[in-house]
Design goal:
By secondary structure, chain A is mainly α. Chain A is built from 25 helices and four strands. Chain A folds into four domains: 47 residues; 154 residues, no CATH class; 123 residues, no CATH class; 234 residues, MetI-like (MetI-like fold, Orthogonal Bundle), CATH 1.10.3720.10. Chain A has a two-stranded antiparallel sheet with strand order 1-2. A two-stranded antiparallel sheet of chain A has the order 3-4. Chain B contains ten helices and twelve strands. Classes of the chains: A mainly alpha, B alpha/beta.
């Protein structure tokens, strides 16, 4: 062979590769070249492991301190007597819910009489706002010119006024007079609106007449529902005295808390102050327990009397129903208030807050309240529920899509189709998540909202929806992000089904469909499950989309609305970190709480990935 | 040789003037320290050169503690000085000077189709704390209220609590939005939405400004509007040198242009 001849004739010049790989005896610190190269490659792969360990250590270091810090905060909450005030304050919050129901009942009842006058007035005002909106530009120019110092030239002002007038007249000519107004009123309205100018503060005469008419009718309505009006007012005013006392106590508790914060911040720097004598600070609170219990009882009595004086019927059937709901809720609320009064004497500021309680307060707390002027709470449940709901929903949407697509591409598609589908689906991964978030805000949100207002779709739960930014919107976008991962993995799983299975199935005379659904898909089952799980892992850690689109309401969604719950806004574990970490002062309880959230998120992701791995292992066993 | 000496001399004077560069330390309110004062400082630096700023915004009270200990030339505060703070300053022989630089206005907006156009202060408290849940309770069309607020780390979030909510918590039905723009667009798109905005963002598409007990926010009548408050700069003793120049700069036309741009109302226009 010519190559051999060449090798024989010329002195061999070693190539770079052979130089690197050839074993040479030269060593440095006992390591020869071979070993050095091996170490180099090993160190590169171990870098990933080291980084992972470092991330874990860093998260733990920042997060672990959270427990003592939060414990200290909760202890202060107790020692300063904030908890004492909350014993009464929290059950009292329900009073406002009852009031809210009563106010709605009242409004619905009054509305039976005032409806026409009100809608006439509102329609006319809406017309005025429409005109103002249309001529916004010209109005702003004129207003600015009028405010200028030194004042603008008179001719210029006159010109601007003329421009505004023309624009206003144009806008008015396009108005359609609402049918609730009489033709003559409509004519007057148009005439007055044509002269609308930012210089005249008074609204047009027709509008004032319509307002006056409404007020007249409203007074009549109040008179005819007098018992209801009075009962509602009495019920609303029932806790006034209790509130006054509670506010005094709260002020004192807050001052004590400020002293504690002061003490701890000054302790680090200059001269230490004396530690706070909680016992003497707490007596002003505890000494007023009899008075507080008295006022709670007085409130209960008054609320009961007011409720008893409520008329049995309200203006509309729905209002009457709400009224009876309110009546049914009241005894429970009053029992709770009295129970709170009973708890007061047993309350002690000294009880220790155990770490167990702190852990419970974090992992099972149902309120995440930060930057509060009363007390911060770091309860993790609302965020977890939001994250899990969105992720599960996204996977539910993405799973059928990606798996059916994978089955089609793998088994039925022609080579040309495969060459088209695969890159396109994988391309979805290239869309930056912030861009998807924008699409969610500006397009998808409106689309979902518009669809939910279509009249023949009203049987769907949760329709019509009110919020553009909700969990469903976020889940749709996240599903889109999960599809490429799930599709590729599922396709691989289908590919890995041993050829022999398929041949055997064919040999037995099965049709293509039978082979696919009886043989291929079942034997790829665990691989497909792993694909779904990895899709879940991808979705639960996603931040930008949920931050922009999920609506950021920190509350446990209201599951009473059934499946419609998915159209409510929610906040997520990832979103809260992104939103709040930026401005939080380093080392504070809030900062550490966010790191705890990060740790939990990390653990969840690890678990999901670990599960996926376990599935894959099972899948590999079945292959052999 | 002479030339080298001359060059050396010039170099020395240059370094000397560079070293003479003054640093203004400004401490206090995060409302002012977030945007307004840093932007004023930037503009002032361009004009006056030779000055650098050290701004830290950790709340209005730090303005006075820093002035007291002499660790700041200027204190910024979103409230007037408290009596005890002033007496403590005076007892240490320091004379506090106050400069009202701008008015901070928070505007309440609802959807343009919402018939409600006036709210009482008490109703605002009740809406944002979640006590009032339905528009029919304040004279609107029945429908659950959607509340849009800034996120918890924003200065306005806390300011609004103090100005309008009597320091009570936001209701759990409130949604935390990333910024003024997002609040405006959600309120504009949701017929049952309500939110608050900085004055500069108030005229957004699809939204309507709600008057509070009859008072509409406007530059012409800032002081009558309940959710407006003056913001101040404080110095200890009459300001001199660069400090004086900077404070004077805040009241010039270019200073006021920045004040307006950031969403405050300049003092000269607040009536």
């Amino acid at each position: 062979m010519p190559a051999d001849l060449n090798n024989d004739s010329t002195p061999s010049r070693p190539t770079l590769g052979s130089l690197l790989l050839k074993s040479q005896r030269r060593t440095f610190l006992g390591v020869d070249k071979q070993k050095a190269i091996r170490f180099f490659f090993a160190s590169n792969s171990s870098a990933a492991v080291i980084v992972l360990v470092l991330i874990m250590l860093f998260l733990l270091r920042e997060g672990v301190d959270f427990l003592p810090t939060y414990r200290h905060e909760l202890e202060t909450y107790q020692h300063a007597g904030l908890e004492f005030c909350d014993l009464v304050e929290q059950p009292l919050a329900e009073h406002q819910q009852l009031c809210s129901k009563l106010r709605r009942v009242l409004s619905a009842s009054l509305n039976t009489i005032t409806y026409q006058a009100r809608s006439r007035r509102d329609a006319a005002y809406q017309q005025m706002r429409d005109v103002e909106e249309e001529t916004r530009l010209q109005r702003a120019v004129l207003t600015n010119a009028l405010a200028e110092v030194p004042p603008a030239a008179l001719e210029k002002l006159a010109q601007l006024r003329q421009e505004l007038l023309t624009a206003t007249q144009l806008a008015v000519s396009r108005l359609a007079v609402p049918p609730s107004l009489t033709p003559s009123e409509g004519w007057q309205l148009k005439r007055d609106l044509a002269l609308l100018s930012p210089e005249s503060a008074e609204p047009p005469l027709v509008l004032e007449l319509l307002s006056a008419a409404y007020i007249r009718v409203d007074t009549e309505a109040h008179a005819s529902f007098k018992p209801l009006v009075e009962a509602v007012e009495a019920f609303e005013a029932a806790p006034d005295e209790l509130h006054t006392l509670l506010n005094t106590l709260k002020k004192h508790a807050r001052e004590t808390k400020a002293l504690v914060t002061d003490f701890h911040s000054s302790g680090k720097g200059h001269g230490r102050k004396d530690p706070i004598d909680f016992a003497s600070r707490i007596t002003p609170l505890t000494s007023r327990i009899p008075e507080l219990s008295g006022r709670i009882e007085a409130y209960a009595q008054r609320a009961q009397t007011a409720a008893a004086s409520l008329p049995p019927q309200a203006g509309t059937p729905q209002a009457t129903k709400m009224l009876s709901e309110m009546r049914a809720m009241l005894p429970g609320h009053l029992t709770e208030m009295r129970a709170a009064a009973g708890k007061l004497p047993q309350w002690s500021y000294e009880k220790r807050v155990s770490y167990f309680k702190v852990v419970l307060a974090f992992f099972f707390g149902d309120a995440w309240i930060t930057n509060s002027s009363w007390q911060d709470f770091f309860g993790f449940i609302p965020l977890l529920v939001g994250s899990v709901l969105i992720a599960v929903l996204a996977v539910l949407i993405a799973t059928p899509l990606s798996i059916i697509a994978a089955i089609y591409t793998n088994q039925f598609a022609s080579v040309r189709e495969q060459d088209f589908i695969k890159p396109v689906i994988e391309f979805i991964q290239a869309i930056p998540s912030v861009v998807l978030g924008f699409i969610g805000i500006s397009v998808l949100g409106d689309v979902i909202k518009d669809v939910s207002h279509v009249s023949w779709l009203q049987w769907l739960p949760g329709f019509p929806i009110q919020e553009r930014l909700n969990m469903f919107n976020a889940a749709c976008l996240l599903a889109l992000m999960a599809v490429p991962t799930m599709f590729s993995l599922a396709e691989d799983a289908l590919n890995n089904v041993p050829r022999a299975y398929i041949d055997a199935s064919d040999a037995l005379g099965a049709t293509k469909l039978q082979t696919v659904f009886r043989v291929i898909v079942p034997s790829a089952r665990s691989g497909i499950s792993a694909a779904v799980l990895l899709g879940l892992g991808r979705v639960i850690g996603e931040t930008m989309v949920v931050l922009l689109v999920a609506g950021n309401r920190i509350a446990i969604p209201d599951f009473r609305s059934g499946l419609g719950v998915v159209f409510q806004p929610a906040h997520t574990l990832t979103g809260i970190i992104a939103q709040e970490l930026g401005e939080v002062s380093r080392g504070s309880a809030h900062w550490q709480a966010l790191f705890m959230v990060g740790i939990v998120l990390f653990v969840i992701s690890l678990l999901v990935n670990w599960c996926a791995r376990a599935f894959v292992r099972r899948f590999e066993l079945s292959k052999s | 040789m002479k030339f080298t000496l001359l060059a050396l001399l010039v170099a020395m004077t240059v370094t000397a003037t560079l070293q003479a560069q003054t640093t203004l330390r400004i401490r206090g309110s995060d409302t002012l320290g977030a945007k307004l004062v840093p932007q004023l400082a930037e503009a002032f630096k361009k004009q006056a050169g030779n000055v650098s700023f050290d701004i830290a915004a950790e709340g209005s009270s730090t303005a006075f503690t820093n002035l007291l200990s002499g660790t700041a030339e200027i204190g910024m505060s979103s409230r007037k000085v408290k009596l005890d703070e002033e007496t403590e300053m005076r007892s240490r022989g320091k004379d506090l000077r106050e400069f009202e630089i701008a008015w901070d206005v928070i505007v309440i907006v609802v959807n343009r189709g919402n018939p409600v156009s006036d709210l009482k202060k008490k109703q605002v408290v009740q809406i944002f704390t979640g006590d009032i849940r339905d528009w029919s309770e304040v004279g609107g069309n029945p429908g659950l209220i959607s509340i849009y607020t800034r996120n918890t780390s924003s200065g306005t979030y806390k300011d609004f609590m103090g100005l309008a909510m009597k320091d009570r918590e936001y209701g759990s039905n409130s949604q935390k939005m990333a910024g003024n723009e997002q609040i405006a667009s959600e309120v504009g798109a949701n017929p049952n939405g309500i939110g608050y905005l900085g004055f500069a963002y108030a005229h957004a598409k699809g939204t309507k400004i709600v008057s509070i007990e009859g008072a509409l926010p406007s530059t012409a009548e800032v002081k009558k509007y309940p959710y407006a408050r003056p913001t101040f700069l404080y110095t200890s003793g009459l300001p001199t040198g660069t400090t004086k120049q900077f404070i004077d700069f805040c009241f010039t036309a270019s200073g006021e242009a920045i004040v307006t741009k950031v969403g405050f109302v300049p003092k000269s226009r607040a009536k």
